[in-house]
Amino acid sequence: MIKSSSRTSIIIATMMIVVIMLSMFSSFWLFRQISSMQVGPTRSELVFFMRQYEYELMRTAAHYAEAYPTPRFADSQERFDTWFNILWSRLDSIESGRLGGEAVADGFDFERLQTAIIYIDSVLYGSEAPDADTVDNVRMLFKQLIEESHQYQQDRDFLNREVALERQMKSYESYRNSLVFSVIALILGLIVAVYLYRNNKRLLDMQAGLEDRVEQRTHELMLSNISLKSEIQERYKVEEQLRNSQMIAEEAKERVEYQANFDSLTKLANRNLFEDRFSQAIARARRDGSQVALLFLDLDRFKHINDTLGHSVGDELLREASGRILNVLRESDTASRFGGDEFAVVLPDVRDPLVIEHIVGRILDELSMPYRLDGNDAFVSASIGVTIFPDDGDSTGTLLRKADSAMYKAKERGRNNFQFFTPQMDIEAHDRRKLEAALYDALEHNEFMLNYQPVFNPHTGRLVGAEALIRWYDHENGFVAPDVFIPLAEEIGLIVPIGEWVLREACRQAVRWKQTSGLPLHLAVNMSYRQFQKQDVAAMVAGVLKDTGLEPERLVLEITEGLMMADDQGIHDQLDNIRQQGVSLAIDDFGTGYSSLSYLKKFPINILKIDRSFVKDLTVDPDDDELVKGILSMAQSLKLQVVAEGVENREQEAFLVSNQCLFTQGYYYSRPLSQPDFERYLMQSAEAYRSA
Ligand code: C2E
Ligand code: MG
Ligand code: MG
Questions:
Q1: Is the terminal CB of the chain with fewer CB neighbours within 10 Å at N or C?
Q2: Domain limits of the chain?
């Protein structure tokens, strides 16, 4: 593009130079021709000068003819002499004059003239008179001179005419050439002008187009600049978000890593990290022949704290307990929390078993110190099981399992103590596992049964209701008490299906009782705290009532005080819902250990069941008398009904009757009865009431 345009400019410039040069050349040519057309004054003067000379010759010759050989007239000689003298002077002027010199230079034969004049002069004006031949010769000479002069002049004239003609021709030619040059220059100029105009127009068009494009491009650039700006801002935003999300991801990674190894609540190692450290300690002990102790620790009655003071207080206690454990340990030891109130401690590099006893003793002491929680002093102890590598096993799993068994033993031995593992514990743990398996079997094969213990109105002596109590006869272990398997079922979560089965079965029976006896007995069913935690009991109850057709008013659900103490809105809502259905709520084992009774106002409770332990020594221990009296009067003022459990004799009944206890239950009236026995008992009672 650049190359072709520069080539075009070179061509145009060259053409312009050519046009200018042609114009100049044609002007110069014309000027030169015109200037050379001027005939010089000397030339015409010369012709005139030579004409005069010819004239003089002719006059001299004419007068010669008159004067020679004899003069015709006297004066003819004189005239000849005069003209001859003129001729002489002409000769002089030719010789010395400018025009004569030019004529000689132009080819005039001056020497011949000179010779002729000298000859004539000598023969005519000599001493002797000229003879006839001489006269003839002179005449011939004059004639020849005249002819020569004439010829010369003619030549000059012709030459002059030719020159003039030639000049005229040349000047025409010059005009023509100049005209041609001018026309060519004009055409070239026109071509250049047209080209320049077109080129200019093209350039103008191009410029306009370019300006349009520039404007459009500028607009586009502005737009793209704006969008670039917003894109850059967007990019900054995205980068910011990316940084944030990277930070979050980093934090999440750290959190995940932390969570993978640490317990978020207590900041102790978790099971993962524990196993890691324990394996390392075992590997080291293998190398240097030392021992590793594993402590398995469970807080005693922690569940109780959790149930009564709420989970947040329970968490606080766990944190505090963790700190206390750490305080006792050495740097090389590892304390970890397995979940709940279970802790495990690794004591590596043990050389003396007494060191273990010392550390474990100190942990127990530290943990049993009072805890200041939520403004109250709480007391918690711990039970610890201890196993030692390599004596009790050589794998983490085995040592943990055995330490767990030892810990259970410590609990059995009255808590707040520790037990080293013994092989006997293994056997017991094994039994426990067997029982666990049997419990699953029992549920699957429908091995549970219900007993019903009658509830009376001691004032009328009439049967008013019954409490359903679960029974399990295991074909291998024989009769297993509910106090044994219910906590186990709670622990392993089986209480949910078992509890639902109990409720459904009991309600079914209660419906039958009314059909067979006509007595609308109340049915009390025990509910576990775990059920409320793991399912919506209210919905479950509603379903069972609907399925069995039992009137809600005849159903009493027995719950424990612990449920009330739990700081759990979900459970509160369930209890409200149950009461709204018309079902009664009773506090079972009322009075066993809780100082705060404010829950009685907060929760929709309508029945209290005084615990057997208070009834047992009624009329024997005045303290219990006062206590039961107090419960009864409080219940009265709170408009709560009271059932006294574990009534075994008449004195107890009499005391309760005299203190306005409305309902009683116990061996004094009846032990829990199997379904057929209870039905028989029911029929007899109905019969008796009818006949009364
Ligand atoms: P509980 O609800 O307080 O039941 C009363 C317990 O006292 C029953 O023991 C009963 O046999 C016993 N008992 C009744 N009258 C007397 C008496 O006069 N003297 C003495 N010494 N004992 C008496 P059982 O049946 O062994 O039940 C023990 C506990 O097991 C029950 O205490 C209850 O908490 C729990 N339990 C029983 N059945 C179920 C059940 O179906 N579900 C749940 N969650 N717990 C149950
Ligand atoms: Mg009960
Ligand atoms: Mg009870």
A1: N
A2: 1-198, 213-261, 271-421, 452-469+478-691
